[in-house]
Amino acid sequence: MLQLEQVSKKIEGQSIVQNVTIEITEGQCVGLIGPNGAGKSSLIKLISGLEEPSAGSIYLKGKSVNQWKTKKIAKSVAVLTQEGLAPYPISVYDAVLMGRYPHLGFFQRESQEDYDKVDHVLEITGLKDFKSQMLDTLSGGERQRVAIAKAMVQEPELLLLDEPTTFLDIGHQLNVLRLVQEWQERENLTVVMVLHDLNLAAQFCEKLILMNHGEVVKEGSSEDIIAEETLRQVYHATPEIIRHPKSNIPQILLSPQ
Ligand SMILES: Nc1ncnc2c1ncn2[C@@H]1O[C@H](COP(=O)(O)OP(=O)(O)OP(=O)(O)O)[C@@H](O)[C@H]1O
């Protein structure tokens, strides 16, 4: 689904992404982790075509991203940032409907099929009762759910999430990640998400890519990555590693000592 070959990005002479070579297969959920400034958001911008690499190639479904038409990328790739949608004074319904725009031709109006898709997505995201409410009156968690609903009606093949849970309480964090997980399983969606919470990343992602100083340090399962020595080297912290009592997945505990 997605291949990066020796991808680098330099801004004003400074390397912010260096020689990144990764492969993500269709239907995979991949967690992009690493310390502040590691280059995670920059990599998401490169994959989404928002920025161009200084060197290397990015292939989406076997075709170089810079050969894709902008509209085709807008249809196939959805990007969600930590801020979610800007709080414009438009209704939840209209905000979600905007997700259909990449599918419409010039001056083409939405069809009944587009409205039906919006209704269906509002239902499965639990937003039906909010559909007339203005976006700028919603809480951060509700707005993030609207952002997911908008991405869902877009029907992308690749979903990129940049710290989608940052401003959310634990209930809403789980809600957002479960919505994404159910969607991924239902549609065989490919997901790449930046997460700072290593415990959530280990629980929700089948593969983790650990970045530091613009480079990929290590990639693998949570078993490979959530390991004391690996985390100590990259984060300069020594977490306690325990097993989740239900899933047995490695989790970290932090303490002052
Ligand atoms: N437009 C830019 N101009 C100059 N430097 C930039 C620019 N964009 C990113 N950088 C630098 O590149 C490095 C990587 O930034 P990036 O936002 O990708 O990191 P990140 O891993 O997402 O960090 P965080 O976890 O703190 O969000 C940082 O040192 C940042 O200052």
Automatic annotation (TrEMBL):
Coiled coil: none annotated. It holds the Pfam family ABC_tran. Keywords: ATP-binding, Nucleotide-binding, Translocase, Transport. GO terms for molecular function: ATP binding; ATP hydrolysis activity. Gene3D superfamilies: P-loop containing nucleotide triphosphate hydrolases. Signal peptide: none annotated. It comes from the Bacteria. Residues 2-238 form the ABC transporter domain. This is ABC transporter ATP-binding protein. It comes from Halalkalibacillus sediminis.
